[in-house]
Amino acid sequence: MITAIVFVTADVAQIPQVAQRIADIDGVSEVYSVTGKIDLIALVRVRTIDDVAGVVTERLNKVAGVLSTETHVAFRAYSTHDLEAAFAIGD
Fold it and tell me: Is the pLDDT of residue 83 over 90?
């Protein structure tokens, strides 16, 4: 599983709508509205690096209201606590 963290700068007047459109994209697991120089952080969790490219360049970047993105690919996780809880079935 590849995890990419995507920083999104969006049209301020459309942040809630942009966030929801991004959240609806297959491969996007979470979208956060944040303070600071960026408006949203999207977590992309997919099987391959090519899938990251597809989600970000072919879908996320084309969402109306997205002004720019900056993508960071995670190469090591130091805590799996939240992931284990998120993907636990029947617990």
Answer: no
